[in-house]
Amino acid sequence: MVSANAPSNGPAGLVVGVDSGGSGLRIALADAATGAVLGDRASREPVRTGPGGISAAHFLEQVLPAVRALTEPFGGRPVLAAAVGAAGMATLGDELRAELPGALAAAWGVRRLALAADAVTAYAGALGQRPGAVVAGGTGMIALGTDLAAWRRADGWGHLLGDCGSGAWIGRAGLEAAMRAHDGRRGGSAALLDRAEKLFGPMAGLPGVLYPRTDRPAVLASFAPEVGHCAPEDPVAADILARAGTHIAEAAGAACPAGAGAGAVVALTGGLFRMGDPLLVPLRAALGELLPHARTVEAAGDPLAGAVSLAAALATGTLRLPEDPSLLRLFGAGVSWPGVRPGGGRCDGPGDGRAGTETGSEGNGSGTEVAPGTGHRGTEGA
Predict the structure, then answer these.
(1) Is pTM, for the whole model, over 0.85?
(2) Do 120 and 150 meet the contact criterion of CB atoms below 8 Å apart?
């Protein structure tokens, strides 16, 4: 899980990785030198959002006891570094950035900390620390790429303004086709109408069911698997997935590092792509047309694996992914942590500390299992 160029004789300590999203929170303890996971914990309770953004108090209330239990079997081995990937970190992470460095230093004596958008931990989990682009698809959709000097981001703007090709986008298009069939308009699908009425009841009542919901993206995304089920036999459903594939490929192309050319590497990660061939076949065709020289690879790991790899790279001085005001903030010795007196030297490793371009606020939805009844997992979900 750690970069291959990490020293094998690294510090005899531990690192903590955290993946926090709309469906809950996952925590892993790992060996600092190797990145090997030693134990993990999970909570189905999402971290609350309050007036200051993501609640630092609620985050710590869940994480501190879990890490205490995970570290007990390992005696006095210190926690050398931690990395937190959180949905909404860019737009809602001010309170976390203000309070977590001091709180984790006081609790664990941790010397180095990375606070990242969960799109970054999805990238690190999928591709590690090499250049390329990652599309994280679930309820929403975001593409993120880097040449290791700066980040390039495409979409992730939420279900009203973007997330094109996401689970919410596919589900909404499928329900529109069902409504068209209900009305007798062109472009309708009798198959999708039948599926929709089995899930939601009579179509005339759907607006009253859907519009008052605060979790509308998740409700829309719950219909995406039905579009996938109908696609092999229904041309309307197949067309929806073909358009989704084009949107996803366009985002991947926009996020690919400039000048990557034949060396471009693209990975797909998140629950959306477990839909399988009904989506992946048209998506691969669109990628082949828009990025003919790119190589599509399997994601090596998930966002929690990415958080662990970031923490291990911080601990061993091998972090190469670029720092960025919105996407990846680093705190460490020699840097003024809120509430902590600066210590010794800066935690710089190869490629560390380079300011990337400001990339703006995050959008919704990576990494969610798109299925009926799932909660919304915002990829950078404001």
Answers:
(1) no
(2) no
